[in-house]
Amino acid sequence: MFITVKFGANCEVLLNPYCQIIILTEYLKKCQCEPGDSIDLLDESGALLNLSEMEGSSESARNYVQERQQYILLKVIRGDGLEPIHYQSLMENLEQSHPLLAA
């Protein structure tokens, strides 16, 4: 079983999700992220996995991802107090490759 995570300028990484969520997210943070960033994944149908809420979890990542699916790496930007959470795609040119997801 594997998943593909897209980021940057047409970069992607194949990952084995048979690991804890904390290990998966720490590895993904090496892909164009700063050490303290929160990240999440978006599947190609536009569904957010909400991994950012479980970043320190020892639960298995395979419970949240689908085999052989492609995901887009997102940076989670939490607002101060009343501001909502925003998500920033870490994949360049998302509008061209996945126009529906960019909206």
From TrEMBL:
The name this protein goes by in its record: Uncharacterized protein C22orf15 homolog isoform X2
Pfam family, one: Il2rg
InterPro entries (UniProt xref): CXorf65-like
Taxonomic superkingdom: Eukaryota
PANTHER family, sorted: GENE 867-RELATED, PB1 DOMAIN-CONTAINING PROTEIN
